[in-house]
Structure formats: C-alpha cells, structure tokens
Amino acid sequence: MNGNDIRERFLTFFQRHDHIIAASSSLVPRNDPTLLFTNAGMNQFKGAFLGEERPLWPRVVSAQKCVRAGGKHNDLENVGRTARHHTFFEMLGNFSFADYFKERAIPLAWEFVTQDLALPVERLLVTVYASDDEAYEIWHTVVGLPKEKIIRIDSNDNFWSMGPVGPCGPCSEIFYDHGPHIAGGPPGSADADGDRFVEIWNLVFMQFDRRADGSMMPLPQPCIDTGAGLERLTAILQGKSNNFDTDLFQPLIRETARLAAVDAEHGEHMVSLRVVADHMRAISFLIADGVLPSNEGRGYVLRRIMRRAMRHGRMLGLTEPFLVHLVPVICQMMGNFYPELTAQSKVLVPVIENEERRFAATLDSGLKILEEAVARLPAAGQLDGLTLFTLYDTYGFPIDLTADIVRDRGIDLDMDGFNQLMAEQRQRARAAWVGSGDEKVAAVFHQLREQVGASEFLGYETEQAQGVIQAIVVNGVAVERLQVGEEGMVIVNQTPFYAESGGQVGDSGMLRKQSGESALFAVRDTRKPVSDLLAHYGALQEGMLQVGDPVLMQVDGARRQSIRLHHSATHLLHHALRQVVGDHVKQAGSLVGPQRLRFDFTHFSALSAEALAEVERQCNAAILANVAQSTLIMTPAAAVAAGAVALFGEKYGDEVRVVQIGSSMELCGGTHVERSGDIGLLRIVSEGAVAAGVRRIEAVCGALARESYREESMVLREAAGMLKSRPDQVTQAVERLLERIRTLEGSLEKAKAAVAGSVLDGLVAQSRMVAGVRLLAARVVGVEVRDLREMVDRLKERFGSAVIVLGMSEGEKVSVIAGVTTDLHVRFKAGELIGFVAGRVGGKGGGRPDMAMGGGSRPEQLAEALAAVAEWMEEKAA
Ligand code: SER
After folding, report:
1. Which of 38, 174, 206, 225 to mutate for ligand 1's pocket (most ligand atoms within 8 Å of CB)?
2. Which residues of 216-235 are buried (b: 16+ CB within 10 A; e: fewer)?
3. Of 260, 313, 340, 371, which has the highest C-beta tally within 10 A?
4. Confidence (pLDDT) at 648
C-alpha cells in the first residue's frame, strides 16, 4: 500500500461509517487569529467544537495539510534528526460533533488499525489520561486489551490542546512498537523519546474550552477529534522504521540525490536529503496556499524553511537552484489529492527559483564568515552578537539557520548582543523614514509599525477572516480603546480588507468583536499609513473595542466585486488603448472604484469616435472571450522581461504580482476577477483632456454599464414618444424639427422687422422742430432695452439731422437713451442731454456726444422729463 492508498483507505473506512469527507482547509487559517499555520485536522472545525457554529454534518473525516513550524506546535528543529518529525505532514482524522463520544471513537479506531490496516495486535499499546477511567474501561472491556497494554499517563502528553486558548480535552493514544532493534522505551518511561514506540493515532475527547485567563469552560457538548499521522502509518505499513524511507518522501530524496550525485540510501548525506525532502513539501504547500517568502510573519517562517533547505542543498554540493527542480516531482506525488499544488505550480516555480537565486548570492560568503568566526572561538565559546547580526542583516541568515549550523558544536549564541543590534537598526530605519520627505507620515504610525509589525493582507483569497486588534488610533494618537460613536483607525494583525493603493480604492465593511460583549465597527475605508500597516478607518457603532480584542472582519463583498470588475477592466482598457492608439500610451494615473473606472494616459490629441469605439469593442471582445485571470509572482526584472507592463515611477518590492488577463499583462497588487467574463460589459462614458498631453477615459462595467445603457435607452424612448417617432428614427425627427425651427425663425425675423418698421414710422410722426432742430422725445413700449440703441441709429438715419430721446419703463425701472447726429454736436451733446433727462427720473446717465444711456427709478416722472427736453434745447440754443 502506498501513501495515497492509505489516505484513501482511511477516508473510505469512515465514509462507510456514515462520515462525510471534508476537504483539507488551507494552511493559512482563515478563522483563527491565534494560529500561525493550520496545525491539526480539527482547526477548521474549531467553531463547531466550541458551539459557535452549527456543524454541517455530525460526523466528518478528513486528510488535513498541517505545518508545525513556529507557534505552539513547532517541529522545525527536529526535522531530519528523528525518524518521525516533519514541518509539513498530513493528519488523518475523524470528528464527531456532539454525536458519538469515547464509546464509539475507540472501537472505530481499533477496527481500522487492526482490520483494515491489519496491524498485528501484539505490536500495539495505548495510553489514556491518568484519571480517565472511562477510556480505560472501554479499551479493557469493549476492545479487550489486557491491562498491561493500557498505560495511564499523568501529563500534558495525554491532554491535548490546540493552543494557549481553544478547545481541548484528555486524549488516548495508540502506539506501535517497531521492536527492540530500535532504541527507545514505551510511553511514560524515561526513554520514551526514542523511535521504537511511535504514536500513530491520537484520540482527543474534546470537553473544554481553555480561556485566555486559564480557566476551563466545559464545551456545550463533548466531541471527538482524532489525528493519525499519515507518514507514520505509511512507514509502519511499508515495514520502515523511518518515515523518510516511505514513498511519501523517497521520490524527493532520490531526485535530490540524483541532482547532487550522492548516495540516496546510505552515508553522510542522509540528514540533508531528508531535510530537503521534508522542507520541499512544506515550501510547496505553503506557497500553493498563498504564503510568500518575506521578512514578516508567515512569510518569514517560509523563508527560514527555504533557506534551511538551501543550506542543506549546499552540504550536498548543490550550488545552483535545485528546489525548483523538485516541483514536478512533488506535483506528481501529491497533485492528485491536492489539486491546488498543480494549479499553483506556475507560482511555485518562479517563487522558489527566485528565493534560491537570491540566497545563493550570499550563502557562501555568509558561511565563510561564520566558519571563520567559529574557528576563532575557544571550545564551548560564544558567537558574538555582531557576527550574528551581520549574518542576518547582510547575508540573509535567519537566526535559527545560524543556530542550526553550529548546533552540534557546543557553541552558544550571544542573543542579547544580537537583539541589541536589531533594536538599533530598527531605530535607524525609523529615523530614515521620517527624513525621507516623501509623504510626511505621522510618527505615530511608524511607531505602531515598529511595535505591532506588518499587517498581513489576506484579501486575495478571502473576504472574511478573524484577527486580533493590534492598535487603535483616534485623532492621531494611539489609544487603548474605542467607545461607541467614536471615529478612529483600527489596526489588526491580518485583514482581508484591501487598503487603497495602485488606484484601487480601499475596502469598506464591518469588524465585529468576537468574544464578550458585542461591538461593531463600520469600516468606511482602508488605507496604508505606512507601506505594510493596514488601517481600517471608520466609526464604532456599537459596544466598546480595545487592543487585544479578537474581531471577525467582513469586507463588503458586493462592493469589492464591483471594484474587481473595474480593476480588471482597467487592464483590458490599457491594453486596448496600446493596440488602437499606439505603444506610446502610458498610464498616467488611474482610479478604480465600485462605481466606475478612470484611466489617464499620455496622448496628444482627442481620440476619434472610431478609435474610442474600437477600444471599447476590443475590451468587450476580451470580456466575451471569458479568459481566466492568472496571477504570477516574480521579481520585477523577470516580470518586465516577460513583457509585463510596469508603471514608471512606482516602487516595487522584491517580489511583484503579475496579473495576466488574455493578452494583457501588468504588474499589479490589486484584486481581480477570476475570468474576464465576470466583467460582463464595459462602457466608455467619457473621453477628454486633463492636462497637456494627458487624456482621461471614464468607463463603467458590469451591471452599472447595463444600467447606463438602459437609462439612456429609456431617455431615447421618451424622446421618441415626445417626437411622435420611434427610437431608431429620432435623429430624422429631430432634423425635421430643427428645419422647422429655422423656417419659423426666418418668418419671425421678417415679422419683427415689419413691426419695428411701423414702430419707427409712428415715432417719426411724433417729432417736431425746436430751436430750428428736429427733436424726437418719446416714450416707447413693447421693445427691449437692448433694442434701444439700434432704434436710435435707425431714427438718425431717417432724420439725417436730429436730437432723439427715447424712454421706457419696466416696473420701477426707467431706461433712457439719447442720440444726436454729428452735425449738431457743437450745440447739443447726447451725454449732457441724458444727464438732464435721467436726473429728472431720479437717476443718472452719461456717454458720448452721439449716443448716451441712463436710467432712473421714477417712472411717473418720465413723461414730464421727456417734455422738458424741448426747454433744455431752447436754453442751450440761446
Ligand atoms: N488534534 C489532535 C492532534 O493534533 C488530534 O487530531 O493530535
């Protein structure tokens, strides 16, 4: 039976006994902020054990990917040195949620081990928690094990807990005796740590919830959680006393040995071959689950594992990237049961190779420095802090890698000195930050970043996660708690909320307190006050929140989805613009929101209607093609070499995400749709200039695009209705309408001219001779003030020589105008005349000798004022 068969057999055995097969959950826990990595089969069911979630099924069986490297359960140090410790392993388990308990769990396990796997009974023995008489009785009377085969253990070994808090309970373990040729004693004995007696199955009788204060609360219902290591079972069934000799590791070991041209079965290289095989499994599964090597959190644990593997590769003589060549081997071994491995192999290859190349550059020089420092030490000496720090800081040696290298030489590490230098370096980095002048970020955020570390972004994979509040900031000051109604920023150790960057707006949603009294924080926006510190901005709507509170974080999913469409559409638009307008098109800014996208690009003239239509058509063709979006992670240089469009002036880290949708390929940290078809539809709504040489296109996508078409078509239909026409004939109808307006305007002009002519005639008739000069001083009605000038000009023409004063009133407002033909200017000036007339209607006026205007506020005086003009002329003439 190979490893895959045993896994299969376990699952089908429990399936026969009414269990539902659950898929392995991700190695990055989605529902538990207290965990670094998924470390047991029961993790994904924590809520069901605690009674917080209703289990979907009462009985479940699974094969779960686990990593125990860092955190409470950490096996990293032991790997390669024992027969049975691994960073990555698979845990087979059956679970009962308030269904069966010990009375069924024990006989089921026994039946599987002794019948389905046919392990010899004489090789098996079990342990129970010292005070658990019930389990003891079941093993003795129901299963029929003799008393000397049931060992009571009075220690934590038989009380299992997931972590410092969470579900826990007494347990009973099944052991296999490899026989006296292997060193080691039975459980509970002094040499129990040897490899002779191996625990193969742990049956946990979940009964309590351990709280942060150490108290043990009984669970609402007792439950069952069992865990059997697939690697150990496989070793036993394949007649091996060392897990690494099974088919779960051998293909990796043999391929590594082949690459290094060393003996795969004997000799000095065994430890290194085993470490590489073990670590390769952890590396591949972690990366496949979205962890990337970095200097923080999970990413750093991965980096440590990778670098440890590489160092062992060096010990095998492998100086070129070799882990990357193991990717096909592991995909071949495990890709069937864990399809994510094959699906992510495109990511695995560049990430692993990049990390290998990066570390290779410094590994040899670092090792040399280390060896020299060690050589200078007296026996049992202490390696100084400066060497440790230099190895870490300049040569990329994680401290546990250095520890691992000198481990067997009785050398001590000056950790105090190392920590002191690390603290000083952080201090320097902080000073450099403040002085960088870029964007002046409040010192409080730099301090917080120092104190609480980077926030981990989970939002590529999920919109919901749990986390623990690390800091709260109100009005720029770090505080302990937020009260109801208060506005503030909340920083959590990990978050699914996308923080505004790369043009994509920040997510909004809810944070909900998870224990004790309820509290609700409405997230309005998410931003990065410093590069990897993600802050949720909003207001506390309910309850009270404080630092240390666990919270459930829920992104507004509909909004995020709409942002995704617009972001992916922006990439398609960028690509189409380069196709249609030319390669000179460069992104000059973008805004991706839930309602629309805005894309600025360099180009010197307006896009023609045809060009715009073609851009829109190409985008929609890519949408209809419904191509899958894929994201690769690589170095910026590799990305650009692969043809990805990088944005000038952007700062990229060591690794970049390259988003590919159809023929568009861009460096991008944003969130995207799975397939281009998800965008549905793209509609360009405007194109215009924003600055010299920069154009802006705005577009809407998905349901919004459809809605915008629908609204427009409704307007069109309404317009057609008003025109008594049909939508497809609206333009003709409008043309007819315009034609008619032109005709009517022509007729109106004519009519107006005719009216004006007769008005002039009437005025001319009112003129008389005063002081030998023709005078017209008259009130006009039915004309606009703006027409007065023209009337005066016409009258001047008609008379040839005259003094003309026209007045009109509209409500309280009086307007007067005076005109004098040039020949009369020596005696009469229009400007003076209008001063005289306006003065009499309670206002003033002035102007040139030939034409002047004025106004007043006493319409009742207008007639008298006009009549007085004759006297004024006579006086002037005298
Ligand atoms: N949770 C227990 C363990 O990890 C049994 O599954 O050993």
Report:
1. 225
2. eeebeebbbbbbbbbbbbbb
3. 313
4. 39
Kindly state the helix (H) or strand (E) to which residue 745 belongs, with its residue range.
helix 730-766
The minimum-distance atom of ligand 1 relative to the CA of 40 is 4
The pLDDT value recorded for residue 654 is 65
pLDDT at residue 808 in the model: 95
Q: How far is the CA of 579 from the centre of ligand 1 (A)?
A: 57
Residue type, 207: Q
The amino acid at 666: E
Question: What's the CA gap between 101 and 171, in Å, rounded?
Answer: 12
Q: What pLDDT shows up at residue 429? A: 60
Which residues, other chains included, contact 573 with Cβ-Cβ below 8 Å and sequence gap of 6+?
597, 599, 615, 619, 682, 697, 699
Contact 298, 33 (CB under 8 A): no
Residue-level pLDDT at 555: 97
555/553 Cα distance (integer angstroms): 7
Please identify, in words, the CATH class of the domain defined by 566-710: alpha beta
Q: What is the pLDDT of residue 56?
A: 80
Q: Collapse the DSSP code of 178 into the 3-class scheme (helix H, G, I; strand E, B; otherwise coil) and give the result.
A: coil
Residue having the nearest C-alpha atom to atom 2 of ligand 1: 227
DSSP string, 362-409: HHHHHHHHHHHHHHHSPTT-EE-HHHHHHHHHTT---HHHHHHHHGGG
**Backbone phi, psi, residue 514, to 5°:** -105, -10
- Ligand 1 centroid–CA 348 distance in Å is 29
Residue 383: both structure tokens together: 């390696």
328 CB neighbour count, 10 Å cutoff: 15
Hey, where are the domains in the chain? 3-246, 272-429, 439-555, 566-710, 766-877
Residue identified by tokens 């039946």 is 111
CB-based burial label for 542 (10 Å; 0-12, 13-18, 19+): middle
pLDDT for 519: 95
Q: Which fold has domain 3-246?
A: BirA Bifunctional Protein; domain 2 (3.30.930)
Please tell me the total number of residues recorded for the chain in this structure.
878
CB 856 within 8 A of CB 842: yes
d(CA 453, CA 468): 13
DSSP code, position 318 = -
- How far apart are the C-alpha atoms of 102 and 132, rounded to whole Å? 11
Pairing, β 494-495 against β 456-457: parallel
Alpha-carbon distance of 492 to 454, in angstroms, equals 9
Report, as ranges of residue numbers, the positions in the chain whose pLDDT lies below 50: 432-440, 648-651
Q: Answer whether 574's CB lies under 8 Å from 601's CB.
A: yes
Cα–Cα nearest to 840, from 856, 818, 819? 856
- Nearest 5°: phi and psi at 571? -65, -45
The model's pTM: 0.59
Architecture of domain 766-877: Roll (3.10)
What number does CATH give the domain 439-555?
Answer: 2.40.30.130
Instruction: Give pLDDT, residue 434.
Output: 38
Q: How far apart are CA 28 and CA 37, in angstroms?
A: 5
Q: Which SS3 state, helix, strand or coil, does residue 876 take?
A: helix
The separation between the first and the last C-alpha atoms of the chain, rounded to the nearest angstrom, is 137
Burial of 790 (0-12, 13-18, 19+ CB in 10 A): exposed
Q: Which residues approach ligand 1 with their CB closer than 6 A? A: 40-42, 93, 160, 202, 204, 225-227
Lookup: tokens for 381: 């000496």
CA of 248 to the centre of ligand 1 (A): 21
Q: What digits encode the pLDDT tens for the residues 698-741?
A: 999 999 999 999 999 999 999 999 999 999 999 999 999 999 99
Per-residue model confidence (pLDDT) at position 727: 92
Is residue 549 within 8 A of residue 469, CB to CB? The reply is yes
